[in-house]
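[Meeting: bench + compute handoff]

Bench side (C.D.) handed over the final construct sequence. Compute side (W.E.) agreed to return the predicted structure before the next meeting so the bench team could plan truncations. Sequence as handed over:
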Amino acid sequence: MNYDQIAILTLNNLQMLLDNLRIPLAVGPINQEDYLILTSGFSELEWGNGFCMQGNKDEKFEFCLKLLSGPMKHIPAGAALCIYDETTESIEIHFVESFVRDNKEHPLYGQMFTITLWAVYLFGAAVGCHQIRIHDAVNQKVVEHYRKFGFEGDVHLLSASFATLGDVVRQYVKNGR
């Protein structure tokens, strides 16, 4: 399988996991409409720069999450952009952002990074990943949040082994939300 096929399989499996956990979100690749929204100032992160730097790579893995129904179902609630580095057998999480982080009633509230890790785990299992890396975290508060998931390092580079990520994913699925 090529990376596009692995990404499609990953998103299908992630959707099944969301459905089984009764999280009312739809997951899919970032389409043209999503791209326009993400690069129009809708987000805090510089998605336009991220797409320019990483978006054309064959090894990219990107997705967005939206509500299953309702008037906001066409607007991304969260998005992530990752790259698989074949030389280091690592997945680099370049962008992960929730656009509903202040809405406690939204089903994605407080879950964007967790769901991103599920996706990274599924994609990583298919490509033989050994490590997950996060370059240039937004701030120290975000670094502390990522450390709860087994990441080590500082604001410039955080990393976790794929085995650690597997433990985190299994623990969540076992215990639920």
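W.E. noted at the follow-up: The longest strand covers residues 90-98. C.D. will use this when planning the next construct.
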